[in-house]
Amino acid sequence: MLSRRHFIMTSAAMFSAPLVTPAFGQQSNWDAWDAQVTPAGYVPGTTNPWGFHDRFLPQLVEANPSLLPGDIHVDAVARYLYHIQDNGTAMRYGVAIGRGGLYEPGIYTIARKARWPAWTPTAAMIAREPAAYAQFEDGVPGGPTNPLGARALYLYVGNRDTYLRIHGTPQPWSIGSRASSGCVRMVMAHIIDLYDNVDTGVTATLYAAEGGIGSAT
Questions:
Q1: Structural contact between residues 18 and 112, judged by C-beta atoms closer than 8 angstroms
Q2: What is the DSSP letter of 217?
Q3: Is the pLDDT of residue 48 over 70?
Q4: Which of 25, 160, 207, 213 is surrounded by the fewest CB atoms within 10 Å?
């Protein structure tokens, strides 16, 4: 099991392809939507109109020097996403992860990126919760109420799309919880910050939700 032993070292541990244009999004609205979901006077490390614990705000922390700059690591226990920098540090963000057995730990490649992406529930989601998802089977255009939010990073294994995403959410109150249908959720303003600094082709490691890197060693 992927464990804390080969992951992030931080003083805060006590809290433990090409850009893809949406199929039917409205690109002319993207800048306006960015402004709509970014709080006035936004300062990443202090702005918190969402009301969650301040530990989920973006912070620069120390990283294990053996980790590859550019890669992403998700601590499912502590609900943190770490983006490894090239100077021994990492940017840490609060996230929500998949509820129940829907979260899928593993090692993935970020093969695609999208700004204000369209969203279509998978067949499995519709079969599992038809009352919630069947009405969206034809897809939802990009926009501030779209479940993928402002940005999405698409997780692949080889050439296969896993349908797992790291994405924004119109439900920021879910950060720190298990709430999604398997994806990793971030506050819209936070993933806007992250998105421009993530390259396609990098690795995203999602650690186990039980007994993972946020647990005691």
A1: yes
A2: -
A3: yes
A4: 160
Indicate the residue type of 16. Answer: S
Sign of the alpha-carbon dihedral angle for 122, 202, 187, 106:
positive
How would you class 61 by CB atoms within 10 Å of its CB: exposed for 0-12, middle for 13-18, buried for 19 or more? Answer: middle
Instruction: Quickly tell me which residue has 């993207």 as its tokens.
Output: 30
Residue 23 tokens read as 């199929």
Token pair for 122: 């998978």
Confidence of residue 75 (pLDDT cuts 50, 70, 90): very high
Give the bridge partners for 151, in sequence order. Answer: 115
- Pairing verdict, β 89-94 and 160-169: unpaired
Q: Are 73 and 205 in contact (CB under 8 A)?
A: yes
What tens digit of pLDDT does each residue of 112-134 get?
Answer: 999 999 877 777 777 877 776 67
Strands 160-169 and 151-157, bridge-based pairing: antiparallel
Q: Determine how many CB atoms are found less than 10 A away from the CB of residue 165.
A: 25
Cα separation, 164 vs 181, in Å, equals 9
Q: CA–CA separation, 115 vs 104, rounded Å?
A: 24
- Rounded distance between C-alpha atoms, residue 217 and residue 33, angstroms: 43
Neighbours of 39 (CB within 10 A): 13
Instruction: For residue 79, name the pLDDT band (cuts at 50, 70, 90).
Output: very high
| Phi–psi pair at 2, nearest 5 degrees | -65, 130
Amino acid in position 72: I
Length of the chain: 217
